[in-house]
Predict the 3D structure of the following.
Amino acid sequence: MEFPAARLNRLLIVPRLRLFLLLALAALGAASARGQLEFKVRPATEATPEGGNVNILVIQAGEEHFVLQVPKGYGAQVRQGGQSIVFTSQTGSSIITVQLSTNYAGALPKMETLRGLVATNHPAASLVQTSACYTSCGAGLFFDLFQPAAGNLTMRMRDAYVSFAEGSFEFTLSCDVREYDRNRISFAWLLNSFRLQAEPAKKNP
Amino acid sequence: MKTTLLNSRTRQRGWALLIVMSLAATGLLLVASVMNWANENAAVTARNNEYFVTTYAAEAATEKALGSIVQDDQNYGQGWVYTKNASSSYNSLIPTASDSSYWTNYQFSGGTNSGAVLVECLNTNVTNFAGPPYSGLQYIGYYYEIIANAKNLSSMYGITATVGQQIVLGQIPIFQFAIFYNDTLEIDPGAIMNINGTVHCNTNIYIDPSSLLTFSNDVSATGTLNLTENPLDPSSRTTPTPANMYVFNGSAMANVNPLNLPVGTNVSCNTTNSASAVNAILQPPPPGEDPGSTIGTNRLYNQVDLIITISNNNVITVTSGINEGTTVITNNQWASFVSTNGSFYSMRDGIQVDPVDIDVGALRKWSATNKQLRPLLAAAPSRSSATADVQAIYVLDQRFLSNTVIITNYTYTTNTASTTSSNYPGSGTYYPPVTTNTTTTTSSALPTSGTYVPPILSTNVTSTNSTSSPTSGTYMGSVTTNNTTNTSTTYPTAGTYTGTVTTNTTVTTSNIRPAAGTYVGTITTNKTNGVITGYTYNLITGYTSHYTTYTYNLITGYIFNGITGYTFTGITGVTTNTIYTTNYVQYAEQGIVLTNGATLPSNGLSVVTPDPLYIAGNWNVTNNSGQGKTQTYDVSDTLPSAVYADAVTILSPAWNPNSSTNSLTGGSRTATPDTVNAAILTGIIPSNGTYYSGGVENFPRFQENWQGVNLYYNGSMVEMFTSQIANDPWPGTGTVYNPPNRYWAYDTNFNNPSQLPPLTPRVIYINRSRWNSLPPGSTVF
């Protein structure tokens, strides 16, 4: 049996507490987002057994060095200031963005929390699916979104997050929904190839 | 005597007449003979011509029946032709006016039967050896004889011509090929590879290895046989293939006839099996389909001993296969060998797999002792108590595993505007593509990265002469140094020289003290007995100076395509009248995982599924007596086995589903030596200009790091279609897998028809063996 006063107290305080926690979390996220990790990208090639030479990008993010394979049929453009890499398909119909941030260092938030943030970041889109996603340097989460666009077109997006010790990477695929199946493969390969470099690059003395 | 004289003259005139008449008669006879000869000759020629034309008509009659037989054989197989012929369906196939009005002049018959040809099956199930390009392969043939008479009704001669043809409708077990591809065949291994069996492709073959590739037997292609890389292969290879990279020890032939499966679903495709038609043999029959129909008889579903079905709501049903699934195997029976509790991640397809696990060892034990299925199998046609073990199973996963999103009552208004911005738009704020606007810009400074579209169009320069050397980056080309040296008695004025001025002097002794400015250094006063006798000093004789200038092309500016902004379809707002709510469907892929298969049921085992299939660990390495070998080409202890699936992946004994998402090189996905002895019939994802198919060298798929690890595979590799479910292309090496040391060989057991895997499909091999012109009315050759 709950006393009316206690019940009133719970009804009033608990939502406030939740609101406070959410605001604190948002503030924490904003604060951490203000800092920036060192971000350097250099292109290289890598020989694979029977697969020939593949184009890779070596990404220095803070103290870590990561490797990505450039998807076939895509060109890469590094945006140093934005700490991101934009992969554009040859046809121009698909774009994959890799964004470094200091958010979610060490671990991603719970799926429900991250899903809410993704929905907030894409207010015009419909968030239709979420799932774990896997890279060669750990698991992450991805979210599928549909976004109406010009005319009768619909854009499909897959927004994936992978955390590492100092921050996280956000991988975003954006393309025409009709082109999705083809570009999903490139996106999956990009995630598969994402790994920590075996030997960290030596710094100049 | 006048009278005597007159008689003599008269007698002479008669002789002349007689001679003339005789000559005329002889001439007439000669002419008549020649005309008669000519007439008879023309008649013989006409008869001859009519005979040949009539022979062609008779051949046309045999061809019409033969064409129909071949067509039916291609589509439905020998059995169908045999049954149809038994009801005399081919006999009535003669050329008619509906084919061409020409045939109204002819009457056709077979033997003594008018209006029909003679079609007879001479022999059935005759085993024989095929010649090149299938040397050494054994086909099982039905021998047919077709005989037709033809008579031209409008001819004065009424000749009857008879033609007979013999044809063999053969079938070659498809697993007698080491490699059989229905689609484009590429073989580009990086390591040395030997192929010890026959190779055939129903389209084109492309051979471009990086190490020696040896074909020990015949190689044939219905299309072309190319020693180059496939134009649709985006890889960079050495092409054409260097001559020291391949060896053909058998024949190598292009443009041979296609070898088709008698799949009843390809009636609209007479020459080549379409991929979808062939894939249909793996699919379950639709409700109501008669198992005895032409399509039904080709479905492997209708030929297996045991059917395992997982329904959409994850209900497992196991039934017999031989009596149309009417015998249901109880749960406590199948629980030991069927499970759906596992899960792993397919790195190749980038998707979770919720598999159906089949414990083959447990299946073998159950099969040897169960009381439900064994009696049925023992009583089945061509089976006995000695062959009552399960030989073939069908596994079908019907769980709803799709991520299909269904949107209902969905309308929206999208507000977009063509937007130009100086900044690149953020993800989700625009609809691709983005156009980068540029303008030709001239600037004295080199543009920074990201502010222009490379390259720099041109660099402006002006020829400059300066006394100072230009700094790096301010000029183009080389710098010319100009030097001038002047000597003068007067000091050079400022600006007429560069660097330092050298003062020239000479040591001089004079009795007069030099004036200031006419010497340098100090003056030595010379004295004799205290009397000054003179002065010694360095008298200035002149000045030497240099004038140095530099000539170069000074950079005055750069012309480039400066980025002025980006134009794109910006999304300014979206109004929807439906709020999307979905259940966040977890997308997973079907997969049949075969484990514990080192020893198969006593008569061997074939597994059929329309889903992707995984073989985990050693497969078929031990016989019924427990004898066996791994890591060897020796197949003396193996049993007949095949897998038929959408895609086939080989997992090593070290495979751990829980490590499937780990990094390839982290150690937890490292394979261990493995041996698989089974024929494989499956699909591939062909090269398409963007992706390479992976070639024969990657026909079995992998998910582990096999680098330096041995995989022994003894079997037959048959590709018949494009994979429908595991449909992501070959991922290259390095992330999803690394290739094993390939110890692959054709399983020579398959040369023995009694050791072919259960359900082995057979491709059609038609051979015209005889053609004869026969006496009219013949009924035999």
Observations:
- Chain A is about 25% helix and 45% strand.
- The longest strand of chain A covers residues 138-148.
- Residues 1-34 of chain A form one domain.
- Chain A has a mean pLDDT of 79.
